[in-house]
Design goal:
heterodimer; A: 300 residues; 7 helices; disordered N terminus; disordered C terminus; B: 663 residues; alpha+beta; Immunoglobulin-like; seven-stranded mixed sheet; five-stranded mixed sheet; 33 strands
């Protein structure tokens, strides 16, 4: 068992030593996003770059030029959207590497040197990948199961509860599946922290994660709640900003771009903050488990 | 008391969640519906107060809600309004369109494409038991009735009934009629779904008699609607007492006895009658412009019903201002339940049907769009009773234009979509659908000639509307004013496209009318484009000069004079010739506006000034919405401007997506 995890200093976000990894996550996402954005931008430039104001015409009330662009370039847009989706999938392993690097940093109170960080990241990537595949498959299965259940019950729900009641019940079933998926994603994070913080292999980490989640679910939920709500709030705030100020002038446009990037960084910071707190809870949970059940953790 | 860390986090979570809810509410707030009535269309024409009654129906109808059938008896008072004697009448039994697979309707429909193409779980039938004329001896004339279209031997929707004696011009006769109508499972505006009944095209209807003594008779085609003479309808509807009725006309009496509800509806100056009956209807009502508006809808649909009621109230005011006051005392709206969607989106005189799920969002204007469109048909179909079969664009196209007027007045640029950062109006969607039709068919052609339901929609609805809005913008206000006059002048009449063109010509002139005719009859189209911008520094003259003699050679001094000379070439493709503005944006931002009459394939605009032309834009105010391609309407001399907002927006969206998608 690593001496680091579980100590009061473990997982504290504020030390600047985590900043490079936070910035790395932000940078990789931003580069990927920029590549996607540039493709769409090139398309729009060719289509309406001649108009005064350039692509500002796309945001004019009424949507005339926006609908014209979509109408005339539908095939290209669909191709770009498909490529963007595939690109997002291709970014999953990249995200796994960068977030594991961050976890290595978060789970150790010491300043870990780059070679050691990379080495530990490389060591944990295998179990992390397996855990990702297992948990993601589980999440997909949950959604599929509840969707099929809702479809099977659809007619009965409508005949029993009326159209509106039936639709609401259908939505409730799907909503329950999404809540379960969300809870599973919390468990997934706990497992990843256990893999990195406790140097566990996948199965022991899953067992430990499940055990900790069962024992410490109030702490986990309470920890995630403000961070998730904060993430939603900053995104909504940026949209409200857009709605109220618009992007009609270059300064406003530049300011909006700045606000958006602040939001993007904030999301990474909030995620890091959650993982950091999860590392603390996992550390405390591991101590409980050792005390209560005499669990021995594999040193991997 | 000091909270634990978990408690503090939960408290922070609760506060932030509340902030999220407030932010979301603020984000989703849709501006109120603030109708800014358009300037009323003033017209010297006073609309007729009443129609000339030609075919009036007095009917007793009993609905069997288990067998889904109607047994009815009645009298049709019919007058030969033509200038010649007639020895026959044509009678439409349109419910037989759903009798078997061999009807014109069923043969013409393309499986899965458009309305009326679903599987019929129960077929319909319409059997005339008696059809006699008091004044012509009283014998049953139906024995001699024959299918009227030899080229469609299996179709039973259009019958010719020989008369034993001539009916002189102006003479009125009374047909005594008895019949049974079996409703189909819900299809194409009529039928039943569980206990919901939409009873349309359910009675034998005499085809409209034209001035020359010919009958405008036609089978029920898949894409066709209807055409009939005006008259007075007096209908007593008998349903189980647990059912509620929504019907054309004014409810004049009602009683419940013997487990049956009997309601009587009367209405003059109309040309069709339909009703709906259901044992689960909920009703709410309102008043607008002195008209009682009632909406009948399924339980749980209160919000969408409120949206439709509000849209109807606003529409009555706006349509009244544009096309003359709505002349009836009531308007009935039926919102069919789930599963009966094909009964929705239809118009009858004083009754319209709408549609949409209970969760229809106010930010997405589907519910109001359908309501406003169908209510527009009270004018273009109901009051101006054009031949929907022969010239469907006269009702659908004009109504689509009128719908846009009301949506613009009530909801501005967010007429159809009003989301944060995205407001889409009716004109943009109309243009999209119209141009997706590829201008493949003539707008002013009969319904059954359209190759598909989507083409019918693209041309008869959207392209017709697009033509009108284009002309109204190019010749400002002329379509609006001419439609105002047309709607008033032809109220309770049956005009043809020529009448519309004449009214437009009176407002906009012969050239504009020529464009309208080309657009609707000859698939007229247009595409403006900036072909090139070329600028150079003005220079001192050089070369050979003969004046004043003798010839002398002046060498190029390469000396620049003050200013630039630019040539902008503007091109027009297509068969329409519409005047258009061209903006020349000079470096530094100043603009010069030029006008081109559109004649010729190209025009070259010469500009001389201190700075070169940076951008040229043809039709900068988007008046020519028929323009096939707006992306070629503007060119920058030094190459297109980079789409920064698109890059920023997509970058941000992708960052957010990756935040959720990557571990």
């Amino acid at each position: 068992m690593s001496a680091a995890a579980g100590s009061p200093a473990a997982g504290r976000l504020w030390p600047l030593r985590h900043a490079p990894w936070i910035l790395l996550i932000y940078a990789t996402r931003s580069i990927a996003a920029f590549m996607v954005g540039s493709s769409f931008g090139a398309l729009a430039t060719r289509a309406i770059g001649g108009w005064p104001g350039g692509d500002a015409a796309l945001l004019e009330p009424g949507g005339l030029m926006l609908s014209e662009l979509v109408r005339l370039r539908m095939d290209s847009l669909l191709t770009l959207v498909t490529h963007a989706g595939l690109f997002a999938i291709a970014m999953v392993p990249v995200g796994m590497v960068t977030s594991t690097l961050l976890l290595v940093s978060l789970c150790d109170p010491r300043r870990v040197m780059l070679p050691e960080t990379l080495a530990r990241c490389g060591k944990h990537l295998g179990p992390t990948l397996v855990a990702y595949l297992v948990m993601t498959s589980f999440q997909v299965a949950i959604v599929w199961f509840f969707y099929m259940l809702a479809e099977l019950l659809s007619l009965k729900l409508t005949s029993g509860l009326g159209v509106r009641g039936g639709d609401l019940a259908y939505g409730a079933i799907i909503g329950v599946s999404l809540i379960i998926v969300w809870l599973v994603s919390i468990l997934h994070d706990v497992i990843r922290v256990a893999i990195v913080g406790r140097s566990l292999r996948t199965l022991p980490a899953m067992a430990a994660g499940w055990s900790i989640a069962r024992r410490r679910w109030p702490e986990l939920l309470a920890a995630l709640w403000p961070r998730a709500a904060g993430a939603i709030l900053v995104v909504l705030g940026s949209l409200l900003w857009l709605r109220h100020t618009g992007m009609s002038t270059s300064p406003r446009l530049a300011l909006m771009a700045l606000v958006q990037q602040v939001v993007a960084v904030s999301l990474v910071v909030l995620r890091a903050s959650w993982l950091s707190r999860a590392a603390e809870i996992v550390g405390a949970g591991a101590s409980d488990a050792v005390a209560d059940e005499g669990l021995e953790y594999d040193q991997g | 008391m000091r909270l634990s860390r978990t408690g503090r986090e939960a408290l922070a979570g609760a506060v932030l969640s509340m902030a999220c809810v407030l932010a979301l509410r603020s984000l989703c707030a849709v501006p109120g519906e603030t109708l800014q009535p358009s300037a009323p269309v003033t017209s010297a024409v006073t609309p007729a107060a009443h129609a000339d009654p030609v075919a009036s129906y007095d009917i007793d109808a009993r609905l069997d809600t288990v067998a889904h059938s109607v047994h009815a008896t009645g009298t049709i008072e019919w007058r030969n309004r033509s200038t010649v004697a007639v020895r026959e009448v044509f009678v439409h039994l349109y419910l037989n369109a759903f009798k078997n697979s061999q009807s014109a309707f069923m043969q013409e429909r393309r499986p899965g494409v458009g309305r009326g193409t679903g599987t019929l779980r129960e077929f319909a039938s319409m059997d005339v038991k008696r059809f006699s004329a008091r004044e012509l001896g009283g014998d049953d004339l139906w024995k001699q009735a024959a299918r009227a279209n030899p080229e469609l031997p299996d179709d039973e929707t259009d019958f010719r009934v020989p008369l034993p004696a001539e009916v002189a011009p102006g003479q009125t006769i009374h047909f005594e009629v008895e019949w049974d109508s079996k409703l189909p499972s819900i299809v194409e505006r009529t039928g039943f779904q569980d206990t919901f009944h939409m009873v349309g095209q359910w009675f034998p209807k005499i085809a409209r008699l034209e001035d020359d003594g010919s009958f405008a008779h036609f089978p029920f085609h898949h894409l066709s609607e209807f055409y009939a003479d005006f008259g007075t309808y007096d209908v007593r509807i008998d349903v189980p007492s647990t059912f509620r009725i929504a019907a054309v006309g004014k409810l004049v009496s009602e009683k419940v006895e013997g487990g049956r509800r009997i309601e009587r509806y009367q209405q003059a100056d109309i040309h069709d009658f339909a009703f709906s009956a259901w044992d689960r209807f909920v009703m709410r009502d309102g008043m607008s412009q002195g008209v009682r508006v009632r909406i009948w809808y399924p339980p749980g649909f209160d919000d969408v019903a409120a949206q439709e009621l509000r849209a109807a109230e606003l529409s009555l005011a706006e349509y009244g201002s544009l096309y003359g006051a709505y002349p009836y005392e009531q308007l009935t709206i039926v919102h069919p339940p789930a599963g009966a969607e094909e009964a929705g989106g239809m118009e009858y005189p004083t009754l319209i049907t709408t549609g949409g799920p209970w969760y229809s969002l106010r930010a997405i204007g589907t519910a109001r769009g359908v309501t406003i469109h169908e209510l527009g048909h009270q004018y273009f179909y109901g009051l101006v009773a054009t031949d929907e079969h022969r010239f469907p664009f006269l009702d659908e196209g004009l109504t689509t234009f009128a719908e846009g007027e009301v949506l613009s007045a009530g909801w501005g640029a967010g007429g159809l979509v009003d989301l944060p950062g995205l407001r889409v109006d009716h004109a943009s969607i109309m243009r999209w659908v119209a141009l997706e039709g590829r201008n493949a068919e003539v707008v002013a052609q009969p319904a059954e000639r359209f190759s598909s339901a989507s083409s019918y929609s693209a041309h008869a609805y959207m392209r017709a509307g697009l033509i009108l809005i284009t002309l109204d913008r190019v010749y400002p206000g002329t379509v609006r004013r001419s439609l105002g006059t047309y709607a008033r002048k032809f109220r309770f009449r049956h005009p043809t496209p020529d009448a519309l063109v004449r009214e437009f010509e009176a407002e906009a002139g012969a050239d504009a009318a020529k464009q309208l005719k080309t657009a609707i009859h000859e698939r007229g189209w247009i595409d403006y484009a900036i072909q090139s911008i070329g600028c150079e520094l003005k220079r001192a003259p050089f070369g050979l000069f003969d004046s004043p003699p003798p010839r002398r050679a002046v060498a190029d001094s390469y000396a620049a004079l003050d200013g630039f000379r630019c040539d902008v070439v503007v091109a027009r493709r297509g068969t329409l010739t519409l005047p258009v503005d061209i903006d020349l944006v000079v470096e530094g931002g100043s603009r010069t506006r030029r006008r081109w009459d559109g004649v010729g394939d190209t025009t070259t605009l010469r500009y001389e000034g201190a700075a070169p032309v940076d951008i040229a834009v043809v039709d900068p105010e988007h008046r020519v919405l028929l323009d096939e391609d707006l992306t070629n309407n503007a060119v920058r001399r030094l190459g297109p401007a980079r789409a920064r907002q698109v890059v920023d927006g997509v970058l941000y969206a992708a960052q957010l997506a990756l935040s959720g998608a990557t571990p």
